[in-house]
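TASK: fixed-backbone design
INPUT:
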């Protein structure tokens, strides 16, 4: 008698969030929902559908016997119980990072990926020189570079799309004692005043923000890059709100408009000054000279992972010596 044939069909409806993340993946989903603010954003980041995210959180809530989400108009918000769980989840995640680092401590350091990121002006200043240094010292290390603004870097660190990111403090970013991340000070970069070449202050050796409080300003548009927050914070600290005459999308356009006489702005000292159109860079003087503070940010507990440790060491070396080893020493922690 001929054996009957049976056909079995397997349907996979979702990916694993992380194949190497040993903590309950549903807790990691909750952490990402908390970081990004919505189920839809978390689903996109985790390569899941919103319904899959909701289903995982409902299952976790049923297993724990406490509600984790509650209605908030058309949205949902995390319950107090969810925030208690998150505090423990951050400790679990940091412990797992330390365990992975210890397990990899004797691994071959010659190869493997290192995902390194930075905001636009940090790429030339820190990220690319660090990648070149690592390519020279560890040629089999696979350094993968991503350009990303600081606010976006932290969710990508959390979801392990990045290992290290050069970041600036932002209004929406994590505090320095956030239990999910470690932020290592790299350097302080003073802000200089930039004016058109024919501006009355163009020949001065220094100026204060009070000298230009009534001037029109050219800024990058909010959310387009970190320059907008840096300049507005500096002006507010000096006691005035800048009269923003023009907003554009990035720093090179800011410099071009200043050079053509549309207003003034502030520029980080380590950002190159374009040769055309002509503008003048004037150091600020007086107490409380504004500066931007650059950090190397990573997941808490991961700094001793061999590849991440190499990247962090190289970033700090670049911050101390500059892009080439004979560059002047920058102000570091």
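OUTPUT:
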């Amino acid at each position: 008698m001929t054996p009957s044939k049976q056909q079995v069909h397997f349907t996979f409806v979702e990916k694993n969030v992380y194949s190497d993340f040993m903590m309950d993946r549903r807790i990691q989903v909750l952490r990402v929902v908390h970081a990004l603010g919505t189920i839809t954003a978390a689903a996109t980041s985790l390569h899941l559908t919103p319904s899959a995210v909701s289903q995982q959180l409902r299952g976790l809530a049923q297993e724990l016997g406490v509600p984790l989400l509650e209605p908030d108009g058309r949205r949902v918000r995390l319950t107090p119980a969810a925030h208690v769980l998150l505090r423990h989840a951050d400790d679990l995640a940091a412990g797992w990072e330390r365990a992975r680092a210890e397990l990899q401590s004797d691994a071959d350091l010659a190869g493997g990926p290192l995902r390194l990121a930075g905001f636009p002006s940090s790429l030339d200043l820190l990220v690319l020189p660090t990648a070149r240094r690592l390519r020279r010292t560890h040629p089999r290390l696979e350094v993968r570079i991503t350009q990303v603004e600081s606010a976006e870097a932290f969710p990508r660190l959390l979801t392990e799309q990045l290992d290290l990111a050069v970041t600036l403090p932002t209004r929406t970013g994590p505090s320095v004692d956030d239990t999910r991340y470690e932020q290592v000070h790299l350097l302080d970069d003073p802000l200089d005043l930039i004016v058109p070449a024919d501006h009355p202050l163009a020949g001065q050796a220094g100026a204060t923000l009070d000298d230009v409080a009534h001037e029109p300003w050219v800024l990058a548009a909010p959310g387009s890059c970190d320059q907008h927050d840096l300049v507005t914070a500096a002006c507010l600290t000096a006691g005035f709100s800048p009269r923003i005459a023009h907003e554009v999308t990035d720093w090179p356009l800011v410099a071009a408009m200043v050079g053509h006489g549309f207003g003034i702005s502030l520029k980080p000292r380590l950002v190159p000054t374009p040769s055309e159109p002509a503008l003048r860079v004037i150091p600020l003087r007086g107490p409380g000279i504004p500066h931007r503070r650059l950090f190397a940010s990573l997941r808490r507990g991961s700094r001793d992972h061999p590849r991440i440790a190499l990247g962090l060491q190289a970033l700090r070396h670049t911050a101390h010596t500059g892009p080439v080893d004979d560059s002047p020493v920058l102000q570091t922690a």
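COMMENT: The CA atoms of residues 129 and 312 lie 13 Å apart.
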